[in-house]
Structure formats: C-alpha cells, structure tokens
Amino acid sequence: MANTYTQLHIQLVFAVKGRASLIQNSWKDELYKYITGIVQKHHHKMLQINGMPDHIHIFIGYNPNQTIPDLVETIKSDSSHFIKRRGFCPQKFNWQGGYGAFSYARSQVKAVVKYVANQEAHHHKKSFQEEYLLMLQKFEVDYKEDYLFDFLEIHSW
User: How many domains are contained in the chain?
Assistant: First the structure.
C-alpha cells in the first residue's frame, strides 16, 4: 500500500522437537544461511540468527505483509526439508510446535543483536528453559505451563 511505513523488530524463538540437541556445529552455518534466505525471500530483514543445538533465535526487521505465524511455519517447514535433503541429521528432524515472538524498539536493536550473537556464552549461565521463561515473564506474556515447549528434563519416561 502506498505511503505505508513500518519499523518493526521481532525476535523469534523456537526449539527442536523434544528439545533434542540435533543442530550440529558442522552444519549450523548452512542452516542459518538457508533460513536467512527464507526470511529475505519474504521481504523481512535478517538482523541476527544464532542458537544452540536444541533451539534457535531469529531477530528480524519484520515486514507486516506476511503474518508471523505464516513466516514461522515457512521457516520451520522449509528448513526441516532442507536438513533432511542435505542428510545433515541421521535422526528424524522436526521443529517443535509453537514459538515465541517478541517485539523490540529501535533503541534495543544493538543489544538484541548482541544477545542473539552470544548465545553460546549466554547458555553457559542459563538453560534454554530458564531463558525462555524469563523472556515470557519480562514481556508479561500470559502462558500455561502445559503448553510451553516440551522440556525433556521434566519428563519421567
């Protein structure tokens, strides 16, 4: 639409199904490049991408012409197929259902880029479960524990 201007910054966070540590250092950069291509193809701007073997953070300049659920679904499905086609993971790879989406002001962009870039150091101090719960609390997101990511450490199988 003519004369429409936006400046939206969104951090997306989601986990590997079952929180399995399947994303390996040997191929994570290729995965991140592939996801960056998906983001850019849909006219969003990749600001930073990084993660751990069991989850990913994607920080973007968001184009509201695509809904966040559609973007996340596209990233998840296309990247899962990419991982399978490339034979990166000997096990079946899937992303877990659900995701977190958190918005930031322009003044916070540098700090969030740094935070996402430094995931490895950050997770020496805090687990993904602790990190995610703190994000939900910080952003005052109402949640039900039954519907949070399926954290493996709370299962008793």
Answer: 1
